[in-house]
Amino acid sequence: MAVMAETPETGKNAPPPGSHVWRARAPFRLESGAVLPALALAYRTWGEPTRNGENTVLVFHALTGDQYAWGSHPLTGERGWWDFVIGPGRILDPERDFIVCINCLGGVMGSTGPSSVDPVSGRVYGPDFPQVTIRDMVRAQLMLLDDLGITRLRLAVGGSMGGMAALTLLQEARERVAAVAALAVGARHHAQQIALHALQRRAITQDPAWRAGRYREQGVAPEAGLALARMIAHLSYRAPGELQQRFGARIRKENASRIGEPPLYEVESYLAHHGHKLVRRFDANSYLLITQAMDRYDLAGPDQSLAAALTPAAGKRVFLASFETDWLYPKAEIDELETALREAGAVVTRIHADTPQGHDSFLLPHAAWMEPFAAFVTALRQA
Length: 383
Known about the structure:
Layout: E1 20-23, E2 28-29, E3 35-36, E4 40-46, E5 56-60, E6 98-102, H1 134-147, E7 155-159, H2 161-172, E8 179-183, H3 191-205, H4 223-237, H5 240-246, E9 251-253, E10 264-265, H6 266-279, H7 284-296, H8 306-309, E11 317-323, H9 331-343, E12 347-353, H10 367-382
Parallel strand pairs: 5-6, 5-7, 7-8, 8-11, 11-12
Antiparallel strand pairs: 1-4, 2-3, 4-6, 9-10
Helix pairs in contact: 1-2, 3-4, 3-7, 4-6
């Protein structure tokens, strides 16, 4: 298997150490009809592929995730976002599996996105970067796998946006994947999810430093807006009961009792911490672009039933997980997806885990979902 050389991305979007960068050999046409003259995707791999790559597991990240699913993140110093799932002796084991995690089209950390330089104009794309879809992201990753010589996948897995990509890959290339796992996501975005994203995007675009998306050219960044967007998002990722148990109405710092100077609550400080963490490693225009792609996600579209749209799933093994306290992607939406997959002929393993952490449950170690997922992966190895 030939691994593409590590080559620096141009502009402000250089990949950190340890990432490979794949570059498309030709311009990449998006679903919208727009064409990217150059396309790069940053990725990491763990383990060794078999001759035909049939032991490959493709891991899709969520909205603000990246290719650092396992190991130490070079910018934050924190452990990978799925460090408790990937590793020797863990569910996805590099001693048995060839694990690939690719930073999505439109993102940061080395993949082509709004903070990359347009090779035609010579300037940072910024708001001129064309709209992308989840399907565009998946097709780009399939091209990378082609160049790695990977023609078959044992499993494609992801949570939230990553689950959208895994299910879309099943539609796009059913012959290449034996099984998919989609955690904490349904078949389409509904009004509540779109509304929450709209608030997050408004937080960014109302920041004076956004400068109509051309902030990089002017040497500024809408950090306050991006941090606020992340605070709104993170609130939707956690469960009300968990927040109450952890923080209640406790005050961290008492301020003057004037309007505009309220006390600083512990839960407020917690959300602000997560907002500031994201600003260190993410781009505001990428946040806008990717949330719009998620809002357009719909496995069926307006003209066919969901079961008809999922006919490529016939005979395929599919693992679905919902979480009792997830109010962002509630159980009923995963129920709808499960019903359609079964009607389409998929072999569905479905769990509903009673975890306290809400939507973020798939990013946290909990036996309620990890044990059945481990059993699903073990069965795939033995098939």
